[in-house]
Amino acid sequence: MLPVLAQAGAQPSLERGRKVYEECVACHDxxxxxxxxxxxxxxxxxxxxxxxPGFRFSAAMKRSGITWDRAVLAKFLADPQELVRGNRMxxxxxxxxADLSALLDYIEAMGR
Length: 112
Hints:
By secondary structure, this protein is mainly α.
């Protein structure tokens, strides 16, 4: 019975995350190999920044040495220029912690 409760509790977060992701979809896809203005987010968690084949990353992102996990991605999405100065992502960041958490839940669920 616990897994059903856990899934039921996760659904509102995923729905909120999907709505927050609507801001991202103009530049990022969750399909593998679909490079838009920004790289595909499919499988982003665990990936080393600046290494996705087929996308032209900034020198700053390639040099960053970042491996994307939830904590690092949260920090980046809160303020992309603070974490990786000189990256080309023209986004000021997500200020609302609940939106950020929901977005990460959504990316994790949809980007596997």
